[in-house]
Amino acid sequence: MNRLLLNKIILILSTLSALLGMGFLFWILTTLSIRGLTSMHFSIFVKDLVDGGIRNLLVGQFTMALIATAIGVPLGMMAGIWLREYSNQNKLASVIRNLSDVMMSAPSIVIGVFVYALFVSPVNHYSGWAGSVALAIMMIPIIISTTDNMLSLVPKELREAGIALGGSKHKIIMQIVIKAAKVGITTGILLAFARIIGETAPLLFTSANNAYMTMNMNDQFPSLTVSIYNLANYPDSQSRDLAWAASFILTMIVLFINLIGRYLTRDKG
Questions:
Q1: What does the H/E/C string look like for 135-161?
Q2: How much is the pLDDT for 268?
Q3: Distance between CA 58 and CA 64 in Å, rounded?
Q4: Distance CA 95, CA 75 (A)
Q5: How many CB atoms lie under 10 A from the CB of residue 139?
Q6: Are 142 and 184 in contact (CB under 8 A)?
Q7: CA geometry: angle at 89 spanning 85 and 90, to 5°?
Q8: Per-residue DSSP letters for 176-220?
């Protein structure tokens, strides 16, 4: 009887906790949608921040995220391939996996401060490159973990079949193993991209912001997330309305990327 009562109590508490969490999430999304949609108009997509739009912010945010992806994906994938295919599961591999797990849970502001000390402080100047490096550092451990885990799911028999056909190790990895795990790896890359596209803290310390359209990565670079943070603290209602609209657009971008990731893995569970 005591076990049944305890089970019911835990079930009720778990259900209430889930409903409470979903309630807050629904509240946030509803408020964001209402305030964002009412503040949105077409002109914000064709004007820069200096004129009350977000065109340069979207371009800047995606530019830094894409450069970070170009840096982080090759490094992360190569590290993940080494861990699974070349390390023979030695002590170094265990250390790298643990460090990767720690990095995935590290606060983003810590990474921002680290890159600030390394790339910004010595030259006393913010830059888009520093912002991209900070985002890449956040992305790399996610790619390492995803690549490592996805390659571990590839059946050993596929590797043995490649060896039986006389294939070299790197050809077996590139032409058989990677292809077999490409959906999972691609999904991990998309989820990592979705995370960095919405980051603010690292960019506050590295790229700062720019109200004008520019592609000069050596200078302060436009950032949608940093602008949302700044605009929300301005006293005028026009700036706050623009912050709501930008927040809604950013949320939809992240949601869309996550839905693509879910779509790719819909039949892989």
A1: HHHHHHHHHHHHHHHHHHCCCHHHHHH
A2: 52
A3: 10
A4: 17
A5: 24
A6: no
A7: 125
A8: IIHHHTHHHHHHHHHHHHHHHHT--HHHHHHT---SS----TTS-
What whole-number distance in Å separates Cα of residue 165 and Cα of residue 199?
A: 46
Distances (CA, A) of 40 to 32, 36, 223, 249, 254: 12, 6, 18, 9, 18
- Token couple for 55: 């065109």
What is the C-alpha separation between 147 and 86, in angstroms, rounded?
A: 13
Rounded to 5 degrees, what are φ and ψ at 104? -65, -30
Which of 175, 181, 166 is CA-nearest to residue 84?
Answer: 181
Chain segment 17-31, per-residue pLDDT in tens: 999 999 998 999 899
Q: State residue 1's pLDDT score.
A: 58
Cα gap 130→136, rounded to integer Å: 10
Which residues, in sequence order, are CB contacts of 266 under 8 Å at separation 6+?
Answer: none
Cα–Cα distance measured from residue 65 to residue 54, given in angstroms and rounded to the nearest whole number = 16
Query: How many CB atoms lie under 10 A from the CB of residue 149?
Result: 16
Instruction: Give the chain's end-to-end CA distance (angstroms, integer).
Output: 38
DSSP string computed for 36-60:
HHHH--GGGGTS-GGGT--HHHHHH
176's tokens: 């058989």
Residue 129 has pLDDT above 80, yes or no: yes
Question: What tokens appear for 7 in the block?
Answer: 């089970």
Which domains are delineated in the chain? 58-223 (1.10.3720.10)
**For the segment 51-104, what is each residue's pLDDT rounded down to a tens digit?**
989 999 999 999 999 999 999 999 999 999 999 888 887 888 888 888 888 888
